[in-house]
Each structure stands twice: as structure tokens, then as C-alpha cells.
Amino acid sequence: MITQDLLNNKEGISLLQPEDLDTTNFILSLYGADDINISEAITYLKNYISIKSPIEELALKHIAHNFQYYKQAEDTIIYDLGFDNVYCALLEHSVLGFYAILKEFITPSAEDWELKQIRTYSPLTNSCFEKDCWVSKKRSISLEWETASRMLADIICSKFDQNISSINKRLYEKLDKKSLAHFFDIEEFEASSGYEDYRDLKRILFL
């Protein structure tokens, strides 16, 4: 059973590997990037906005991908962070990592959740079987692994969408024509696209 006491205990910590409780790589692994190098766009955008969480980093990568893709191909992209993809990734994730993600995304009630093995008796087969469940004492409920994964996937996708909107708004307010000209050739954009207003470029990039 994984409890807060285990995570706070020196002996418990000694049994855990850093990657077991590192949700950063898991969250960022949900970003299905292609072979386009977005490092230039990431560096550029971080001059105008600060990132405070892994889910914001994921959202910024999506925006940076739009920037880099449009600069190279003069087109927009469709970003795929579907519920099914996140849900399947959670089902395959390690128990400790899942616990860390649960702690990060379900607050402030996260401290109440514990992973327990629950033994259930089946009169049909006259036998007992064990299954992993997330248990909340405060809410007096338990969630099976699959149900908890589904719930957490919904939370992650919802938070991702919120962060995309939030970062888009913050960047839109800060990036003026002079700033965009450092990354894009505004005159070439106006000539090739026929747009006279650079706000059309911002609108396309932040889709």
C-alpha cells in the first residue's frame, strides 16, 4: 500500500527511484511530436511567457509546434492529445508514477487518496481475488484502477485545454507586430497570404 507516510519516510524514499515519482516525463510524453525541431520556437516564446507546470509546458509545446510548422510549411496543424491516448498511457503507467500524477492533479483531496489491494469474495466461484483500488476515506469511495485512470485522463485533457487557452491569451496580449517580426518575416507573410493585418497571423498560429 502506498501512503503519504511511505512517501515521507526516509526508508520508503530509499526504496523509490526518482523516475517513479517524476510525472514530468509522463506528461511530456503525451506530446506526439513529429520530426520538426521546435526548440527555436520554444526559446522564442519563453521570452514572453513563464511556464509553471508540466501541463503548461505541454501546452506551450503545442503552440511552439504551430509556430515552427507555419514558419516552414505555411499551414496549420491538428494537435492530437485525445482522451483515449491519455487514458491508455495511464493504464500502462507504473503504480508509483500513477500515484504521483494523482497527487499532482487531484488537489486538495489528493492527500486523502491511498492505493490499496482490496480482496473481494465471489460466491459464483467460491474464491477471493485481489485488485488495486484508489481509496478516499474522506469521500468514503473507492475507485478501481481503470476507473481512476479514466477520471485522471479526463482531468489531464481538461487542464491541457484550459492551459492552451490561457497561454494563447497571455501570448496574444504580449506579442505585437514588432515582436513577431523577430520570428517571422511579416512583410513576406502579408505579400504571400494577402493579409494586411498581422493579427491574422496570430490567429492562425494560436489555433
What does this structure look like?
The chain is mostly helical and 207 residues long. The protein contains 11 helices and 3 strands. The chain has helices at 4-8, 10-15, 24-29, 39-45, 54-73, 83-91, 95-105, 145-174, 177-180, 186-193, 199-205; strands at 113-122, 127-136, 141-144. The chain has a 3-stranded antiparallel sheet with strand order 1-2-3. A hairpin with a 4-residue loop joins strand 1 and strand 2. The two termini are 44 Å apart. The mean pLDDT is 81.
- Helix- and strand-based class? mainly alpha
Strand arrangement within the widest β-sheet reads 1-2-3
**Element-by-element helix/strand order:** HHHHHHHEEEHHHH
Low-pLDDT residue intervals, each spanning 5 or more residues = none
Which of globular, elongated, flat, extended, rod-shaped describes the shape?
Answer: elongated
The proportion of residues in beta strands is 5-15%
Radius of gyration: 22 Å
Report the oligomer: single chain
What fraction, in percent, of the residue positions are helical?
40-55%
Number of helices: 11
What's the number of extended β-strand segments? 3
Averaging pLDDT over every residue, what do you get?
Answer: 81
Question: What's the story with the biggest beta sheet?
Answer: 3 strands, antiparallel
End-to-end gap: 44 Å
Question: How is the topology of this model organized?
Answer:
Elements: H1 4-8, H2 10-15, H3 24-29, H4 39-45, H5 54-73, H6 83-91, H7 95-105, E1 113-122, E2 127-136, E3 141-144, H8 145-174, H9 177-180, H10 186-193, H11 199-205
Helix pairs in contact: 4-5, 5-8, 6-8
